[in-house]
Amino acid sequence: MNKQVIKARHFSIAFRCCFAFAALVATPSAWTVSAALGKPTVLKADSLTRPLGIDTAKPLLSWQLQDSSWGAKQTAYEVIVSSKLSASGMLKPDIWDSGRVVSGQSVDVSYAGPALNGQKRYYWQVRVWGKDGRPYPVSDATWWETGLLTASNWKAKWIGYEAPELHSVREAGATWITNSAVPSYNREPIPLTIFASAFQCRTVSSGPFCTQPGRIRQRPG
Predict the structure, then answer these.
(1) Pair 39, 95: CB distance under 8 Å
(2) How far apart, in whole angstroms, are the C-alpha atoms of residue 128 and residue 122?
(3) What's the predicted TM-score (pTM) here?
(4) How many C-beta atoms surround the C-beta of residue 174 within 10 A?
(5) Is residue 182 within 8 Å of 163, Cβ to Cβ?
(6) What is the pLDDT of residues 181-205, one digit of tens each?
(7) What confidence tens digit (pLDDT) does each residue in 53-87 have?
(8) Beta strand segments in the chain, E
(9) Fewer beta carbons within 10 angstroms: which end of the chain, N or C?
């Protein structure tokens, strides 16, 4: 056997080994191991990334699976909501932990924890499981921030100039007084309604007698 034949055979064996290795790397199982390192991304609350001032009591959460392997899909998820960030990157579920939910849903997953407080930032992350039942790495933490959720959250006053007299009237807590027993009440001609911010009352022989000191403001009822 001459040297040229021996070299040709060595080259053929080496080529076959390289081809077999390349085919092994390209198989779906090998890609699954590599792609499993991808954690969920594009986390959104109410279709927004890190939204400020949302007023929904139960935000809708969404994320995207990062796995390009053949037939990859989500089979379960777990959502964790926390009141603060963690240095380790894994949030402590002191607000809500959905637990492992067997579902392929990754869009508009409703928050189902305790009632949210207004003007507060909530941190959250998600872990998902793939078609083989193995978990992907947990996602990075993100957040949403609530706005004024209830009427009791509104504490501000109107901004603008107001005449001292009008301001005192508005702050007095007085109400309009009218007599619905009068036959002409709410008919033509329109009766007068007297607005009084204070009264002085004393007892006379016929019963209580009240007067209104200062100016009396009148308007059609």
Answers:
(1) no
(2) 20
(3) 0.57
(4) 15
(5) no
(6) 666 555 555 555 555 556 666 665 5
(7) 999 999 999 999 999 889 899 999 999 999 999 88
(8) 41-45, 60-64, 76-82, 96-97, 101-102, 109-110, 121-129, 142-145, 176-177, 192-195, 200-204, 207-211, 217-220
(9) N
